[in-house]
Structure formats: C-alpha cells, structure tokens
Amino acid sequence: MSFTFRNILHAKDLQVLEKLMKTTGLFYDFEIAVALEVLGSFLERGEASGYHCIVAQQDRQCAGYAVFGPTPCTRSGWDIYWMAVRKDLQGMGLGSQLITIIEKEIVLQGGSHIWIETSGRQDYLPTRKFYEKHRYRIMAQLPDFYAPGDSKVIYGKQISFFQTDNGQLKNSRLPISTER
Predict the structure, then answer these.
(1) How many Cβ atoms are within 10 Å of 46's Cβ, its own excluded?
(2) C or N terminus of the chain, fewer CB within 10 Å?
(3) What domains appear along the chain, each with residue ranges and CATH number?
(4) 48-93: pLDDT as tens digits
(5) Contact at 8 Å (CB) between 75 and 18?
(6) What span, in angstroms and rounded, lies between the C-alpha atoms of 82 and 13?
(7) Model confidence over 111-129: pLDDT tens digits?
(8) CA atoms within 13 A on the CB side of 173
(9) Cβ contacts of 2 within 8 Å, gap of 6 or more
(10) Distance between CA atoms of 177 and 159, rounded to whole angstroms?
(11) 167 Cβ partners below 8 Å, 6+ apart?
C-alpha cells in the first residue's frame, strides 16, 4: 500500500480529518473539538503555532495525520499531541510510517525526547501496544485522570539519529525508511 505525506494543511482537510477521527471510534466529541482547534491553530499560524503537522494521503485522500511540537519549557523534549489513522487502514503500516517521519523531523529540529499521552481505557490497548512496538516506554500512569477508571498513560522515548555515508538518517532502534 502506497502513501504520500505532506506537512501542509489545507482548510478543506479539517472536515475530512474530523470524519477520520470519528471513524476510529476512540475519540470523544470534545476531544475531536480540541484536535480541530489545534489543527486550526496550525492552519492559521503554521509552525509559529508551536505545532507541526503531517498529513498522510492515499490516492490523494487524507488517510491519517499527526500533530506534534516542542514541549514547552524543555530544551529538547517534543510531544506527539494527536495521531490518527483511518479505521480501514489501521494495521497496514501507515501509523509506523507516520511515527518514523515524526521522529526523524524531531531529530532534525534538535529534539532528543518524545512524550506521548494516551488513555488507559481498554479500547486504547491497541494504541498502547503500537507505541510499545515502537520502543516507547511507560513513564507514568495517572489513575482516574480523564474519568473514573480512565487513567492517563504517559509514554516516553529518547531518540538519536546519525547520518550515514550516503546521507540517510539512521537510528539503531528504527528501521531505515527514506520514503515520504
């Protein structure tokens, strides 16, 4: 399956990404509203908003996206704020491609640590397994953070890349991928 990636967000993407988030079955309506607010901030101000955005496409249609940015008040920490893949494309490698692109971009921007916050709900188990597959470690769990019985699970990962002789970025923890 072939995907293309862009770091440009178009106004017409917002409605499509809203529908995409709804199809995952994971996000509450108020979470989608916050995600759209973040996307709107990026659309209006670009990286001056404090956010970076990657949109994945398949056949010129939005297939997934991620929003990430420097963690305020840190020297080299970054957060992955939002990441979603269309339900029918989950498990086909798109999320892995997105996270690899994000990690490479963070290193290019001088980042060394990545933080991800997610839900401890049972329906988020595949999401947590995905992060663990990509060598993110649970750093903390805050019981009943989002609601009674719904903890916040904080993942973290230290990253470092080096440039090979042929100019590729390489990380011993990640497979090499130069496709974007």
Answers:
(1) 14
(2) N
(3) 4-170 (3.40.630.30)
(4) 999 999 999 999 999 999 999 999 999 999 999 999 999 999 999 9
(5) no
(6) 15
(7) 999 999 999 999 999 999 9
(8) 14
(9) 58
(10) 16
(11) none
